[in-house]
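Lecture notes, structural biology module. Today: joint structure prediction for complexes of two components.
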Amino acid sequence: MSGNSIADKKTFNNVVQYNALMKIAESRMTNRAFVPSYEVPKEHFEMILEAARNAPSGANSQPWHYIVVTDPAVKQKIGDFFIKEQQLRAKLRMGFPTPSYQGMKTAPGLIVILSDFRFIRAFPVLNDGSAMDLRYKRNAEWILLQSVAASTMSAHLAAAALGYAVWWSTAVGQEDIGSQIKPLLGIPDELSLIDIMCFGPPLKPSYKRWKKKLDEIMHWDRFNRKNFMTDADIDSWIKNTRHKVMYRDRSQVD
Amino acid sequence: MSGNSIADKKTFNNVVQYNALMKIAESRMTNRAFVPSYEVPKEHFEMILEAARNAPSGANSQPWHYIVVTDPAVKQKIGDFFIKEQQLRAKLRMGFPTPSYQGMKTAPGLIVILSDFRFIRAFPVLNDGSAMDLRYKRNAEWILLQSVAASTMSAHLAAAALGYAVWWSTAVGQEDIGSQIKPLLGIPDELSLIDIMCFGPPLKPSYKRWKKKLDEIMHWDRFNRKNFMTDADIDSWIKNTRHKVMYRDRSQVD
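The predicted structure, tokenised, for the full assembly:
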């Protein structure tokens, strides 16, 4: 085959399907307050996690568990743990513009996402405790996190496809929150809390956040230095831009 | 509002759109050998990275860069680095059933995925070097990795939507590969190689890998102990199942 035959172009150019995906990807918008009285049908949870189930993972290990939380009292407690963490951050003077977690307490859809880090030993590692093993184990930990995120992203797109607003709350590494949530849901010690996914009809309409332009993230054959940020650029972004791009409509940034 | 009104059910029940997404998610299948002579149109790279661009990220930092590699000589070299790593793993007797990386050398679509870990300081951290800061920094590193994976997953789904077979090759933490690829593409020292994404028309048809059943990953209000794997279960899975689920058609697994 020299170049692309017409058949190829047709087979690998399903623009209709691509456009359907992009419509969903663009409608996936973060919202942090949902209609509390709305009841998510059970089949929607199943449909959303059916998407999560189909994601790729390192060594096809599928190292994820999803707990659908429907008990209002448990949702309240989970939201309270995040609010407590937010208060701690304020006290520590992190200067991070943490969002309000109030909406988590009454989110109609709330799914606790877990991972099993024991699967690291199913990845390319030596399991002999050597320095090289530790290097590979770090690599493996990252592969595992990427796998769970790929699965979680699929779930978020599925919720967006159904028409819901979504909220991806990272809880990774926040051991306090993890250790408080675990007994509420009977989560074994061996598993780790990774994220909370909330979704539902938005209380106020969602709006599109600022995104970098395509040519700011896309490079052809060589890294384009014009897209490089110096340390000073990053510090300035944190000081002057971060709070805007986190919370404003994109039309209100710059 | 008590319960769901008919209007709600209609607005948040876009099953047609959901089915379109699921068709794409299910057709996203890993393949590791593509038609070498096929030329990916430039606009397909743009369409695929347009999906990546729309992903969510911690603090909306969008800490990702995508380098499209079109130079055949550079692709050869990148493939060779992975093959060298594979040979090292064999020599170390890892026992991991590493795939063949030959197909990477001639993949029509090859995108090098980078992240900028300096954005960790834009996440909730203290930046004072304390033990608590280190804990939050680890958390932040994970948020960053999850962000890049969410973006990468979007790109893979876009490629699958167009009709391509895809291959997600993790390179995270493999510093040797990173340090060898960087000079080839003019990648600044400050950035980290995360993954290689390959795609194209498959040389042989793709096939669906084994996936856990929905009720093995989905739990209602409490973790269902029947889905818990003991350490012995995981060891046995690695020994007896891993190689099958990584490489066989799902109809050929048990």
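Point to remember: Residues 82 and 214 of chain A are 34 Å apart (CA to CA).
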